[in-house]
Amino acid sequence: MEKFSVTLPLTGEYLTTVRLTTGGLCSLVGFDVDFAEDFKVCVTESLLILKRNGYKSATIEYTIGEALGCQVTGQDHSGEKEDSVEDEISRALLSALLGEVAFYTDENGEVCEIRFEG
């Protein structure tokens, strides 16, 4: 099992880079095009959830083996938290596309980490 990680600011220009990286890793483990697209959406939505919860950056750690695991962890919790129904939409989308998704919260009940596997 191999691991690949990247830490990035949660700004729009880096999301394209994350999607390309995720797509390449999906190809490496043999995902079909449709599932790879779903997985890329899930990584992007996870980053958006963290951004809306006040994180300025995030670390994405991919675990590459027979499946592709993904752990998205918020870094630099100094931004403004946005009260938004968009988090519920993002959570529903993640669950619909992947089934099992784990959300971890900090002591204030805010999402700080999201894990899933494809």
CATH topology: Heat Shock Protein 90
Structural class: alpha+beta
Name of the CATH superfamily: Histidine kinase-like ATPase, C-terminal domain
Helix content: 40-55%
Average residue pLDDT: 92
Q: What distance lies between the first and last C-alpha atoms, to the nearest angstrom?
A: 15 Å
Going by CATH, the architecture would be 2-Layer Sandwich
The string of secondary-structure elements, in order, is EHHEEHEE
Approximately how much beta-strand content do the residues carry? Answer: 25-35%
CATH class: Alpha Beta
Query: What summary fits the major beta sheet?
Result: 5 strands, antiparallel
Large-scale geometry:
globular
Number of domains: 1
* Total beta-strand segments: 5
The parts where pLDDT drops under 50 for at least 5 residues are none
Arrangement of strands in the largest sheet: 1-2-3-5-4
Cα gyration radius (Å): 13 Å
Structure annotation, total helices: 3
Describe the protein.
With 118 residues, this protein is of the alpha+beta class. It contains 3 helices and 5 strands, in the order βααββαββ. The chain has a 5-stranded antiparallel beta sheet. α1 (12-28) runs antiparallel to α2 (33-52). The radius of gyration is 13 Å and the shape is globular. The relative contact order is 0.21.
Could you write a compact summary of the structure shown?
The chain is of the alpha+beta class. 42% of the residues lie in helices and 31% in strands. Helix 2 runs antiparallel to helix 3.
For the structure shown, list the relevant keywords.
five-stranded antiparallel β-sheet; globular; alpha+beta; Heat Shock Protein 90; 118 residues; 3 helices
